[in-house]
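User: These chains co-purify. Model them together.
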Amino acid sequence: MNELDQLLQRIADGEDSPAVVERARALLREDVRLPNELREIGLEDDDPQIAASALLGVLGLDDGIFGGLLSEAIGLEAGEPSASASDEVVTAAQLAEQESEWGIPVADAVRAESGVVDLSYAWSGGLEAVAQAVRESAGDFAWEGERPWADVPVADAVRHESHSIELWPIVSRTLFKDWAGMPIRDAVTDGGGQVPELWSSIASSVDADPGVPVADAVRDQAGSVDLVSDVMLTLAPATTEIDVPAAANSSRFFMFLATAAVAAVALLAVAVQFSGNPGASVTSGGEMEFAKAGEVILEEMSYDEDVEVIVTLPDDEGDRPMIIRIYEEV
Amino acid sequence: MTTSHDIQPHRRPRGLGFLRFMGLAAMLSVAPQMGFAQSGSPSPTPVKASQLPVPSKADLEVLVVHGDESGKIDARLKPIMRHLRYMPHTGYRLLRRDDRFLGVGADHAFELVDGLKLKVSLVSLTGTQAKIRVEMFHGEARKMDSVLAVHRNKAFLIAGPKHEDGELILAITPKY
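Assistant: Joint model of the two components:
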Protein backbone atom coordinates (compact mmCIF):
# COMPACT_ATOMS: atom_id res chain seq x y z
CA MET A 1 0.00 0.00 0.00
CA ASN A 2 1.33 3.42 -0.88
CA GLU A 3 0.65 6.64 0.99
CA LEU A 4 -2.65 7.25 -0.76
CA ASP A 5 -3.85 3.78 0.08
CA GLN A 6 -2.96 4.24 3.68
CA LEU A 7 -4.64 7.61 3.90
CA LEU A 8 -7.77 6.25 2.28
CA GLN A 9 -7.75 3.40 4.76
CA ARG A 10 -7.46 5.81 7.67
CA ILE A 11 -10.27 7.96 6.34
CA ALA A 12 -12.40 4.88 5.77
CA ASP A 13 -11.73 3.89 9.35
CA GLY A 14 -13.18 7.15 10.60
CA GLU A 15 -10.42 9.70 10.59
CA ASP A 16 -11.77 13.01 9.32
CA SER A 17 -8.87 15.36 9.88
CA PRO A 18 -8.94 18.06 7.21
CA ALA A 19 -5.22 17.74 6.78
CA VAL A 20 -5.48 13.99 6.13
CA VAL A 21 -8.36 14.41 3.71
CA GLU A 22 -6.65 17.24 1.85
CA ARG A 23 -3.43 15.22 1.53
CA ALA A 24 -5.37 12.23 0.26
CA ARG A 25 -7.09 14.42 -2.33
CA ALA A 26 -3.73 15.73 -3.54
CA LEU A 27 -2.34 12.22 -3.90
CA LEU A 28 -5.55 11.01 -5.50
CA ARG A 29 -5.29 13.57 -8.27
CA GLU A 30 -1.89 12.12 -9.22
CA ASP A 31 -2.76 8.44 -9.00
CA VAL A 32 -2.77 6.96 -12.50
CA ARG A 33 -4.47 3.77 -11.35
CA LEU A 34 -7.75 5.53 -11.34
CA PRO A 35 -9.75 7.21 -14.11
CA ASN A 36 -9.59 10.98 -14.33
CA GLU A 37 -13.18 11.38 -13.11
CA LEU A 38 -12.47 9.53 -9.91
CA ARG A 39 -9.28 11.45 -9.40
CA GLU A 40 -11.16 14.73 -9.55
CA ILE A 41 -14.26 13.89 -7.54
CA GLY A 42 -13.19 10.86 -5.61
CA LEU A 43 -13.00 12.60 -2.25
CA GLU A 44 -15.29 15.50 -2.90
CA ASP A 45 -18.24 13.67 -1.39
CA ASP A 46 -19.86 15.11 1.70
CA ASP A 47 -18.93 11.98 3.56
CA PRO A 48 -15.20 11.32 2.95
CA GLN A 49 -15.45 8.07 4.89
CA ILE A 50 -17.82 6.52 2.35
CA ALA A 51 -15.85 8.00 -0.55
CA ALA A 52 -12.64 6.56 0.80
CA SER A 53 -14.20 3.13 1.17
CA ALA A 54 -15.41 3.25 -2.40
CA LEU A 55 -12.00 4.29 -3.66
CA LEU A 56 -10.39 1.45 -1.76
CA GLY A 57 -12.83 -0.89 -3.36
CA VAL A 58 -11.98 0.43 -6.83
CA LEU A 59 -8.28 -0.01 -6.03
CA GLY A 60 -8.89 -3.57 -4.96
CA LEU A 61 -7.90 -2.87 -1.37
CA ASP A 62 -11.30 -3.41 0.18
CA ASP A 63 -13.28 -6.62 0.40
CA GLY A 64 -16.55 -4.80 0.86
CA ILE A 65 -19.53 -4.98 -1.36
CA PHE A 66 -17.65 -4.14 -4.55
CA GLY A 67 -14.03 -4.30 -3.50
CA GLY A 68 -12.17 -7.05 -5.17
CA LEU A 69 -14.85 -8.03 -7.61
CA LEU A 70 -15.20 -4.54 -9.03
CA SER A 71 -11.46 -4.09 -9.39
CA GLU A 72 -11.14 -7.48 -11.01
CA ALA A 73 -13.93 -6.73 -13.49
CA ILE A 74 -12.39 -3.43 -14.47
CA GLY A 75 -9.04 -5.00 -14.91
CA LEU A 76 -10.43 -7.79 -16.99
CA GLU A 77 -12.32 -5.51 -19.33
CA ALA A 78 -9.93 -2.61 -19.59
CA GLY A 79 -6.51 -4.08 -18.92
CA GLU A 80 -3.85 -2.13 -17.17
CA PRO A 81 -4.80 1.54 -16.97
CA SER A 82 -2.42 4.07 -18.38
CA ALA A 83 -2.37 7.79 -18.04
CA SER A 84 -2.68 8.38 -21.76
CA ALA A 85 -5.52 5.92 -22.28
CA SER A 86 -7.54 7.15 -19.33
CA ASP A 87 -7.41 10.65 -20.67
CA GLU A 88 -9.16 9.64 -23.87
CA VAL A 89 -12.87 9.62 -24.41
CA VAL A 90 -14.08 6.19 -25.39
CA THR A 91 -16.20 6.52 -28.47
CA ALA A 92 -18.54 4.14 -30.18
CA ALA A 93 -16.06 3.91 -33.00
CA GLN A 94 -13.32 2.85 -30.60
CA LEU A 95 -15.58 0.26 -29.08
CA ALA A 96 -16.35 -1.08 -32.49
CA GLU A 97 -12.67 -1.13 -33.33
CA GLN A 98 -11.84 -2.99 -30.14
CA GLU A 99 -14.60 -5.46 -30.74
CA SER A 100 -13.36 -6.01 -34.26
CA GLU A 101 -9.73 -6.32 -33.22
CA TRP A 102 -10.08 -8.32 -30.02
CA GLY A 103 -13.31 -10.11 -30.68
CA ILE A 104 -14.66 -8.96 -27.32
CA PRO A 105 -18.31 -7.85 -27.57
CA VAL A 106 -17.94 -4.95 -25.19
CA ALA A 107 -20.85 -2.97 -26.56
CA ASP A 108 -23.14 -5.96 -26.50
CA ALA A 109 -22.04 -6.73 -22.97
CA VAL A 110 -22.86 -3.21 -21.89
CA ARG A 111 -26.24 -3.36 -23.55
CA ALA A 112 -26.93 -6.75 -22.02
CA GLU A 113 -26.07 -5.45 -18.61
CA SER A 114 -28.09 -2.29 -18.98
CA GLY A 115 -31.15 -4.19 -20.16
CA VAL A 116 -34.04 -2.57 -21.98
CA VAL A 117 -34.88 0.90 -20.84
CA ASP A 118 -38.63 1.32 -20.97
CA LEU A 119 -39.02 4.92 -21.98
CA SER A 120 -42.74 4.58 -22.53
CA TYR A 121 -43.38 4.72 -18.82
CA ALA A 122 -41.31 7.84 -18.48
CA TRP A 123 -43.00 9.22 -21.56
CA SER A 124 -46.48 8.55 -20.25
CA GLY A 125 -45.52 10.29 -17.07
CA GLY A 126 -43.98 13.07 -19.09
CA LEU A 127 -47.10 13.70 -21.15
CA GLU A 128 -48.70 15.56 -18.30
CA ALA A 129 -45.66 17.80 -18.01
CA VAL A 130 -45.65 18.40 -21.75
CA ALA A 131 -49.36 19.13 -21.70
CA GLN A 132 -48.88 21.57 -18.86
CA ALA A 133 -46.08 23.26 -20.77
CA VAL A 134 -48.26 23.47 -23.86
CA ARG A 135 -51.08 24.97 -21.86
CA GLU A 136 -48.81 27.53 -20.33
CA SER A 137 -47.27 28.40 -23.65
CA ALA A 138 -50.68 28.66 -25.27
CA GLY A 139 -51.76 31.28 -22.77
CA ASP A 140 -55.45 31.90 -22.39
CA PHE A 141 -56.54 30.27 -25.59
CA ALA A 142 -59.95 28.64 -25.30
CA TRP A 143 -59.48 24.89 -25.41
CA GLU A 144 -63.13 24.05 -25.60
CA GLY A 145 -63.17 24.26 -29.40
CA GLU A 146 -63.59 21.29 -31.66
CA ARG A 147 -59.94 21.43 -32.79
CA PRO A 148 -58.16 23.37 -30.06
CA TRP A 149 -54.75 22.68 -31.56
CA ALA A 150 -55.73 24.13 -34.91
CA ASP A 151 -54.86 27.67 -33.90
CA VAL A 152 -52.43 27.01 -31.10
CA PRO A 153 -48.68 26.75 -31.70
CA VAL A 154 -48.49 23.39 -29.99
CA ALA A 155 -45.44 22.21 -31.85
CA ASP A 156 -43.57 25.42 -31.12
CA ALA A 157 -44.52 25.25 -27.47
CA VAL A 158 -43.40 21.66 -27.19
CA ARG A 159 -40.11 22.42 -28.91
CA HIS A 160 -39.56 25.37 -26.62
CA GLU A 161 -40.18 23.29 -23.54
CA SER A 162 -38.13 20.40 -24.78
CA HIS A 163 -35.13 22.55 -25.63
CA SER A 164 -34.88 21.91 -29.35
CA ILE A 165 -35.70 18.23 -29.16
CA GLU A 166 -38.27 17.40 -31.84
CA LEU A 167 -40.91 16.05 -29.54
CA TRP A 168 -43.88 17.03 -31.65
CA PRO A 169 -43.58 14.14 -34.11
CA ILE A 170 -43.56 11.81 -31.13
CA VAL A 171 -46.48 13.61 -29.55
CA SER A 172 -48.48 13.50 -32.75
CA ARG A 173 -47.72 9.86 -33.33
CA THR A 174 -48.73 9.11 -29.78
CA LEU A 175 -51.94 11.06 -30.06
CA PHE A 176 -52.90 9.67 -33.45
CA LYS A 177 -52.05 6.20 -32.38
CA ASP A 178 -54.37 6.68 -29.48
CA TRP A 179 -57.02 8.03 -31.79
CA ALA A 180 -56.64 5.05 -34.02
CA GLY A 181 -57.38 2.93 -31.02
CA MET A 182 -60.60 4.78 -30.38
CA PRO A 183 -63.78 3.52 -32.05
CA ILE A 184 -64.19 6.65 -34.19
CA ARG A 185 -62.62 5.25 -37.31
CA ASP A 186 -64.29 1.89 -36.90
CA ALA A 187 -67.63 3.55 -36.37
CA VAL A 188 -67.21 5.66 -39.48
CA THR A 189 -66.06 2.69 -41.46
CA ASP A 190 -68.76 0.35 -40.27
CA GLY A 191 -71.53 2.88 -40.57
CA GLY A 192 -70.40 4.62 -43.68
CA GLY A 193 -68.40 2.66 -46.13
CA GLN A 194 -66.34 4.99 -48.24
CA VAL A 195 -66.68 8.70 -48.80
CA PRO A 196 -63.47 9.61 -50.62
CA GLU A 197 -63.87 13.35 -50.29
CA LEU A 198 -64.72 13.29 -46.60
CA TRP A 199 -62.48 10.48 -45.49
CA SER A 200 -59.49 11.66 -47.49
CA SER A 201 -59.81 14.98 -45.72
CA ILE A 202 -60.02 13.31 -42.34
CA ALA A 203 -57.21 10.93 -43.20
CA SER A 204 -54.90 13.73 -44.26
CA SER A 205 -55.61 15.53 -41.01
CA VAL A 206 -54.83 12.56 -38.83
CA ASP A 207 -52.08 11.15 -41.01
CA ALA A 208 -54.07 8.03 -41.69
CA ASP A 209 -54.63 5.79 -44.67
CA PRO A 210 -57.35 7.28 -46.87
CA GLY A 211 -57.98 3.99 -48.63
CA VAL A 212 -60.68 2.87 -46.24
CA PRO A 213 -64.01 2.14 -47.99
CA VAL A 214 -66.63 4.53 -46.66
CA ALA A 215 -68.46 6.21 -49.52
CA ASP A 216 -70.55 3.40 -50.90
CA ALA A 217 -71.91 2.40 -47.54
CA VAL A 218 -72.75 6.01 -46.71
CA ARG A 219 -74.56 6.36 -49.99
CA ASP A 220 -76.41 3.13 -49.40
CA GLN A 221 -77.45 4.25 -45.96
CA ALA A 222 -78.23 7.82 -46.79
CA GLY A 223 -79.79 7.58 -50.22
CA SER A 224 -80.00 10.89 -52.00
CA VAL A 225 -78.72 13.82 -50.03
CA ASP A 226 -80.47 17.14 -50.60
CA LEU A 227 -77.61 19.51 -50.01
CA VAL A 228 -79.56 22.39 -51.52
CA SER A 229 -82.12 22.17 -48.78
CA ASP A 230 -79.43 22.12 -46.11
CA VAL A 231 -77.77 25.14 -47.64
CA MET A 232 -81.07 26.91 -47.72
CA LEU A 233 -81.71 25.99 -44.13
CA THR A 234 -78.39 27.52 -43.20
CA LEU A 235 -78.80 30.66 -45.22
CA ALA A 236 -82.50 31.30 -44.69
CA PRO A 237 -83.75 32.72 -41.40
CA ALA A 238 -85.18 30.29 -38.91
CA THR A 239 -88.89 30.00 -38.37
CA THR A 240 -90.69 30.22 -35.10
CA GLU A 241 -93.25 27.70 -33.94
CA ILE A 242 -96.48 29.43 -33.11
CA ASP A 243 -99.93 28.48 -31.95
CA VAL A 244 -102.61 28.81 -34.55
CA PRO A 245 -106.02 29.65 -33.15
CA ALA A 246 -109.04 27.58 -33.92
CA ALA A 247 -110.83 28.74 -36.98
CA ALA A 248 -113.27 31.51 -36.26
CA ASN A 249 -114.97 31.26 -39.63
CA SER A 250 -116.20 27.90 -40.70
CA SER A 251 -119.46 28.97 -42.23
CA ARG A 252 -118.12 28.51 -45.74
CA PHE A 253 -116.21 25.34 -45.17
CA PHE A 254 -117.17 23.12 -48.10
CA MET A 255 -116.31 19.49 -47.71
CA PHE A 256 -117.06 18.37 -51.26
CA LEU A 257 -117.91 14.82 -50.39
CA ALA A 258 -118.79 13.99 -53.94
CA THR A 259 -115.45 15.30 -55.10
CA ALA A 260 -113.69 13.19 -52.55
CA ALA A 261 -115.27 10.12 -54.04
CA VAL A 262 -114.00 11.06 -57.48
CA ALA A 263 -110.61 11.82 -56.02
CA ALA A 264 -110.50 8.41 -54.43
CA VAL A 265 -110.80 6.88 -57.87
CA ALA A 266 -108.00 9.13 -59.00
CA LEU A 267 -105.86 8.07 -56.07
CA LEU A 268 -106.31 4.46 -57.01
CA ALA A 269 -105.16 5.22 -60.53
CA VAL A 270 -102.21 7.18 -59.24
CA ALA A 271 -101.22 4.35 -56.97
CA VAL A 272 -101.06 1.99 -59.94
CA GLN A 273 -99.07 4.47 -61.97
CA PHE A 274 -96.59 5.21 -59.21
CA SER A 275 -96.00 1.61 -58.37
CA GLY A 276 -92.91 1.32 -60.56
CA ASN A 277 -90.99 4.21 -59.00
CA PRO A 278 -91.10 3.86 -55.23
CA GLY A 279 -87.71 5.40 -54.56
CA ALA A 280 -88.04 8.71 -56.43
CA SER A 281 -85.70 11.34 -55.08
CA VAL A 282 -86.62 14.90 -54.28
CA THR A 283 -83.67 16.20 -56.20
CA SER A 284 -82.14 15.28 -59.48
CA GLY A 285 -78.94 17.07 -60.28
CA GLY A 286 -79.66 19.58 -57.56
CA GLU A 287 -83.12 20.49 -58.90
CA MET A 288 -86.31 20.13 -56.91
CA GLU A 289 -88.96 17.91 -58.46
CA PHE A 290 -92.50 19.11 -58.77
CA ALA A 291 -95.50 16.90 -59.06
CA LYS A 292 -96.66 16.39 -62.59
CA ALA A 293 -100.12 15.58 -63.81
CA GLY A 294 -101.59 12.80 -61.72
CA GLU A 295 -99.06 13.10 -58.94
CA VAL A 296 -100.99 15.69 -56.97
CA ILE A 297 -104.69 15.68 -56.24
CA LEU A 298 -106.63 18.42 -54.55
CA GLU A 299 -109.15 16.46 -52.52
CA GLU A 300 -110.72 19.18 -50.44
CA MET A 301 -110.78 22.94 -50.60
CA SER A 302 -112.56 25.66 -48.67
CA TYR A 303 -111.88 29.34 -48.29
CA ASP A 304 -113.15 32.45 -46.65
CA GLU A 305 -115.76 34.78 -48.13
CA ASP A 306 -113.22 37.40 -49.07
CA VAL A 307 -110.91 34.91 -50.74
CA GLU A 308 -110.83 33.61 -54.28
CA VAL A 309 -108.89 30.49 -55.20
CA ILE A 310 -107.78 29.48 -58.66
CA VAL A 311 -105.98 26.24 -59.29
CA THR A 312 -103.52 25.71 -62.13
CA LEU A 313 -103.03 22.11 -63.12
CA PRO A 314 -99.56 20.65 -63.52
CA ASP A 315 -98.43 19.46 -66.90
CA ASP A 316 -97.45 15.93 -67.79
CA GLU A 317 -93.72 16.60 -67.58
CA GLY A 318 -93.69 18.15 -64.12
CA ASP A 319 -92.33 21.34 -65.59
CA ARG A 320 -95.32 23.47 -64.78
CA PRO A 321 -96.30 22.77 -61.19
CA MET A 322 -99.69 22.73 -59.58
CA ILE A 323 -100.35 26.26 -58.37
CA ILE A 324 -103.08 27.06 -55.87
CA ARG A 325 -103.44 30.80 -56.22
CA ILE A 326 -105.17 32.69 -53.45
CA TYR A 327 -106.66 36.11 -54.00
CA GLU A 328 -107.56 37.84 -50.79
CA GLU A 329 -109.80 40.88 -50.99
CA VAL A 330 -108.39 43.18 -48.39
CA MET B 1 -95.14 27.20 -71.89
CA THR B 2 -98.29 28.40 -70.33
CA THR B 3 -101.45 27.89 -72.28
CA SER B 4 -104.70 29.59 -71.61
CA HIS B 5 -106.68 26.40 -71.13
CA ASP B 6 -104.22 24.91 -68.66
CA ILE B 7 -103.98 27.85 -66.36
CA GLN B 8 -107.09 29.50 -65.13
CA PRO B 9 -106.11 33.10 -64.66
CA HIS B 10 -109.60 34.38 -64.03
CA ARG B 11 -111.13 34.95 -60.67
CA ARG B 12 -113.76 32.54 -59.60
CA PRO B 13 -117.30 33.89 -60.09
CA ARG B 14 -119.30 33.95 -56.92
CA GLY B 15 -121.30 30.80 -56.30
CA LEU B 16 -119.56 28.66 -58.86
CA GLY B 17 -116.84 27.31 -56.62
CA PHE B 18 -118.41 23.93 -56.13
CA LEU B 19 -118.96 23.29 -59.83
CA ARG B 20 -115.45 24.47 -60.65
CA PHE B 21 -114.01 22.17 -58.06
CA MET B 22 -115.98 19.24 -59.35
CA GLY B 23 -114.59 19.86 -62.80
CA LEU B 24 -111.09 20.04 -61.43
CA ALA B 25 -111.44 16.80 -59.56
CA ALA B 26 -112.72 15.09 -62.66
CA MET B 27 -109.73 16.29 -64.63
CA LEU B 28 -107.34 15.12 -61.97
CA SER B 29 -108.92 11.73 -61.86
CA VAL B 30 -108.32 11.24 -65.58
CA ALA B 31 -104.83 12.67 -65.61
CA PRO B 32 -103.01 9.61 -64.26
CA GLN B 33 -104.09 7.37 -67.08
CA MET B 34 -103.13 10.03 -69.61
CA GLY B 35 -99.71 10.53 -68.12
CA PHE B 36 -99.05 6.82 -68.02
CA ALA B 37 -99.97 6.38 -71.64
CA GLN B 38 -97.74 9.18 -72.76
CA SER B 39 -94.71 8.14 -70.85
CA GLY B 40 -94.45 4.79 -72.61
CA SER B 41 -91.79 3.60 -70.21
CA PRO B 42 -93.31 1.51 -67.46
CA SER B 43 -90.98 0.14 -64.88
CA PRO B 44 -89.51 -3.27 -65.78
CA THR B 45 -90.15 -4.53 -62.26
CA PRO B 46 -93.41 -2.97 -61.16
CA VAL B 47 -94.17 -2.96 -57.48
CA LYS B 48 -97.66 -2.29 -56.31
CA ALA B 49 -98.18 0.52 -53.90
CA SER B 50 -99.76 -1.85 -51.45
CA GLN B 51 -96.50 -3.81 -51.32
CA LEU B 52 -94.37 -0.84 -50.35
CA PRO B 53 -93.57 -0.26 -46.69
CA VAL B 54 -95.73 2.42 -45.17
CA PRO B 55 -93.67 5.01 -43.32
CA SER B 56 -94.89 6.57 -40.13
CA LYS B 57 -93.32 10.00 -40.58
CA ALA B 58 -92.59 12.48 -43.31
CA ASP B 59 -90.66 15.69 -43.55
CA LEU B 60 -92.98 18.48 -44.67
CA GLU B 61 -90.83 21.10 -46.29
CA VAL B 62 -92.07 24.60 -47.06
CA LEU B 63 -90.02 27.06 -49.07
CA VAL B 64 -91.30 30.60 -48.60
CA VAL B 65 -90.48 32.69 -51.65
CA HIS B 66 -91.21 36.33 -52.35
CA GLY B 67 -91.97 37.19 -55.94
CA ASP B 68 -91.81 40.76 -57.19
CA GLU B 69 -90.83 42.81 -60.19
CA SER B 70 -87.30 43.60 -59.08
CA GLY B 71 -85.75 41.42 -61.75
CA LYS B 72 -83.39 39.93 -59.17
CA ILE B 73 -83.21 36.18 -58.74
CA ASP B 74 -82.07 34.65 -55.47
CA ALA B 75 -79.31 32.18 -56.33
CA ARG B 76 -80.62 29.81 -53.68
CA LEU B 77 -83.76 29.34 -55.74
CA LYS B 78 -81.92 27.80 -58.66
CA PRO B 79 -83.37 24.33 -57.95
CA ILE B 80 -86.90 25.60 -58.57
CA MET B 81 -86.43 28.43 -61.06
CA ARG B 82 -87.46 26.20 -63.94
CA HIS B 83 -90.87 26.00 -62.31
CA LEU B 84 -91.13 29.55 -61.03
CA ARG B 85 -91.07 30.87 -64.58
CA TYR B 86 -94.75 30.04 -64.64
CA MET B 87 -95.28 32.71 -62.04
CA PRO B 88 -95.96 36.29 -63.17
CA HIS B 89 -92.87 37.88 -61.63
CA THR B 90 -89.39 38.88 -62.66
CA GLY B 91 -87.73 38.73 -59.25
CA TYR B 92 -87.68 35.94 -56.69
CA ARG B 93 -86.15 35.84 -53.24
CA LEU B 94 -86.09 33.02 -50.69
CA LEU B 95 -87.48 34.30 -47.41
CA ARG B 96 -87.16 31.12 -45.39
CA ARG B 97 -87.26 27.37 -45.46
CA ASP B 98 -89.19 25.40 -42.93
CA ASP B 99 -89.29 21.66 -42.63
CA ARG B 100 -90.49 19.41 -39.86
CA PHE B 101 -90.71 15.69 -39.42
CA LEU B 102 -94.29 14.96 -38.63
CA GLY B 103 -96.01 11.75 -37.72
CA VAL B 104 -99.40 10.94 -39.15
CA GLY B 105 -101.93 13.18 -37.44
CA ALA B 106 -99.38 15.76 -36.34
CA ASP B 107 -99.24 19.33 -37.57
CA HIS B 108 -96.86 22.23 -37.66
CA ALA B 109 -97.71 25.92 -37.82
CA PHE B 110 -95.51 28.93 -38.34
CA GLU B 111 -95.75 32.55 -39.32
CA LEU B 112 -95.06 33.33 -42.95
CA VAL B 113 -94.99 37.10 -42.64
CA ASP B 114 -96.64 39.56 -40.30
CA GLY B 115 -100.07 38.24 -39.42
CA LEU B 116 -100.11 35.52 -42.06
CA LYS B 117 -99.72 31.98 -40.73
CA LEU B 118 -99.45 28.59 -42.34
CA LYS B 119 -100.38 25.30 -40.78
CA VAL B 120 -99.47 21.99 -42.39
CA SER B 121 -100.74 18.64 -41.14
CA LEU B 122 -99.81 15.12 -42.14
CA VAL B 123 -103.11 13.34 -42.65
CA SER B 124 -101.90 9.98 -43.92
CA LEU B 125 -99.06 8.22 -45.70
CA THR B 126 -98.77 5.41 -48.17
CA GLY B 127 -95.71 3.97 -49.78
CA THR B 128 -95.95 6.48 -52.60
CA GLN B 129 -97.91 9.50 -51.52
CA ALA B 130 -98.72 11.71 -48.61
CA LYS B 131 -102.02 13.31 -47.84
CA ILE B 132 -101.45 16.68 -46.28
CA ARG B 133 -103.70 19.44 -45.08
CA VAL B 134 -102.70 23.02 -45.69
CA GLU B 135 -104.40 25.85 -43.84
CA MET B 136 -103.70 29.53 -44.09
CA PHE B 137 -104.67 32.02 -41.42
CA HIS B 138 -104.73 35.76 -41.42
CA GLY B 139 -104.86 36.74 -37.79
CA GLU B 140 -107.65 34.74 -36.22
CA ALA B 141 -109.42 34.01 -39.45
CA ARG B 142 -108.79 30.92 -41.52
CA LYS B 143 -108.56 32.06 -45.10
CA MET B 144 -107.99 28.75 -46.83
CA ASP B 145 -108.19 25.09 -45.97
CA SER B 146 -107.17 22.33 -48.35
CA VAL B 147 -106.32 18.65 -48.40
CA LEU B 148 -104.01 17.33 -51.09
CA ALA B 149 -102.64 13.93 -51.97
CA VAL B 150 -99.11 14.44 -53.23
CA HIS B 151 -96.57 11.99 -54.52
CA ARG B 152 -93.71 11.58 -52.10
CA ASN B 153 -90.84 13.99 -52.61
CA LYS B 154 -92.79 16.03 -55.17
CA ALA B 155 -93.70 19.67 -54.64
CA PHE B 156 -96.59 21.95 -55.47
CA LEU B 157 -97.09 25.68 -55.12
CA ILE B 158 -99.44 27.92 -53.20
CA ALA B 159 -99.23 31.55 -54.24
CA GLY B 160 -101.05 34.82 -53.91
CA PRO B 161 -100.76 36.32 -50.41
CA LYS B 162 -99.62 39.91 -50.80
CA HIS B 163 -96.33 40.91 -49.20
CA GLU B 164 -94.49 44.17 -49.67
CA ASP B 165 -94.48 44.90 -53.40
CA GLY B 166 -95.12 41.35 -54.48
CA GLU B 167 -96.64 38.13 -53.32
CA LEU B 168 -95.69 35.05 -51.37
CA ILE B 169 -95.11 31.74 -53.11
CA LEU B 170 -94.96 28.56 -51.06
CA ALA B 171 -93.35 25.39 -52.40
CA ILE B 172 -94.56 22.49 -50.29
CA THR B 173 -92.97 19.02 -50.45
CA PRO B 174 -93.67 15.89 -48.40
CA LYS B 175 -90.29 14.19 -48.11
CA TYR B 176 -89.81 10.60 -47.06
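The mean pLDDT of chain A is 63.
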